[in-house]
Amino acid sequence: DAGVIQSPRHEVTEMGQEVTLRCKPISGHDYLFWYRQTMMRGLELLIYFNNNVPIDDSGMPEDRFSAKMPNASFSTLKIQPSEPRDSAVYFCASSFFRSEAFFGQGTRLTVV
Amino acid sequence: GENVEQHPSTLSVQEGDSAVIKCTYSDSASNYFPWYKQELGKRPQLIIDIRSNVGEKKDQRIAVTLNKTAKHFSLHITETQPEDSAVYFCAANGNTGNQFYFGTGTSLTVIP
Fold it and tell me: Are the Cβ atoms of B43 and A100 closer than 8 angstroms?
């Protein structure tokens, strides 16, 4: 397996634009996580899914953020409209129940 | 949810010395405690983990200890090498068993 695959690796967008981040988890994993990493706040859990169902989205900062998992092999994190304070590295990770979470390479988002 | 605190935030050691990073957690239901290493510009990767049914686990130069009563766990790196320089994160899985809550990270520098 190629591991968790995220795209794009880098995204630069203007304030107010919609941004969509994509993730393909490791095949067979039944949990998928979205994290945001910044210097100030470290690694924050935004939302996680179990068997494609969102379980806990309490970490999503506000209504501008939304996440979907239409099937077991694909998830998206969308920010609309984007703001400069959303600039961060966004990681997707997947795992089996109570086991190691494998991280993707991350998407570095810059909102100008 | 779970609250994981990690200390110190930065740590510098001489090559060959030992390094210790400590974490505490708040939710007694947490039973899985992974440690991740993140090199600059890369994804977090698991280096060792421990489950609540054991008190200590060792893998070559790396060991982790867990005190369930006190709700703290520690990472020990012996005979440190320059390639150990990175940011280390502890995590706990919270009361649902599969939400990974991360500490704020320790930036370790090994001085040759």
Answer: no
